[in-house]
Specification:
With about 325 residues, the chain is an alpha/beta fold. About 30% of the residues lie in helices and about 20% in strands. The protein is built from 10 helices and 12 strands. The strands form 2 sheets. An 8-stranded mixed beta sheet has the order 6-7-5-4-8-9-12-11, with helices on both faces. It has a 4-stranded antiparallel beta sheet with strand order 1-2-3-10, with no helix packed on it. Helix 6 links the parallel strand 8 and strand 9. Helix 2 packs across helix 3 and helix 2 packs across helix 4. The chain is globular and about 50 Å long. About 40% of the residues are buried. About 5% of the residues have low confidence.
Amino acid sequence: MQCSCKICGNTKSNEQYIFEEKMYATGDSFDYFQCSACKTLQICSIPDNLGMYYPDSYYNSKIKFIASLRNSLRLKRDHHSYGKKNFLGKILVEKIGANCNTAAFRWIQKIINPAHDCKILDVGCGPGNFLLFLDSLGFKNLTGLDPFIQKNNFMGKNKHIQIKKCQLEELNGQYDLIILNHSFEHMPNPQKAFNKLCSSIAPGGHILLRVPIVNWAWKHYRHNWVQIDAPRHIFIPSLKAIKILCRNNGAVAKKVKFDSNAFQFIGSKKYSKGIALNDHLPITNKQKKNYEEQAVDLNKIQQGDQVCFIIAKN
């Protein structure tokens, strides 16, 4: 099967793979390939029934450990991850891990210092938890979109946070800050999506793009790498692929930060043992600490499997 790269268009010498759906352990298999030119890992053909792999439990399943907690406790954890230390948040972070989304926002906030009245768009917002966190920080002009939620919705105490059930391409208007917390890799046409993102940045605006990246974990775990996430991850870019997308759209990555964590080890080890993502894998605190330290070391040498980009127009 000859497949064309969704990033650079290359069709020559691409290596073929068959990956299984492993989050829910359905056993369904999908053809993928890695582009020999830009190294992007990607699905050959997007399944017509892709929506069935985003069940109602999809977002909640990833955070089921806090689903029963009140919003106030969830925000305590988010604020502690962000840098606003608090006792309850510390306990939650120790038990269930930090919220990487809030930590990444702290990073971009220090660099670009967005005003509290700026227009912020969260692409792939799910049920809107991150928007509620931004609201708690005092940001008031908040919008989210996600094609896989059930319906349009309004959130917040005054119902001022608008969440739209739509595709990125259907969006109108411009925003001062567009945030994609691991949603870009779910989009069927990265070139078209990136073009839309860049055209939706207001003058002086920025994109916070967080994605998995083809790196050490892919080379080490291969088919069991947790970030493959077939078929939901339509593509997993390389650093070269992001540079290509920026160049083709008159944009530049102003800042780059590797922010992988123990998930790349724990999730991948689950898959290597045939364990679904949300099922239990016995792990000691010492092992978890060791994985976190390994992740820090990989990030230092730009080999972590997740990256944050701050992107702006040239």
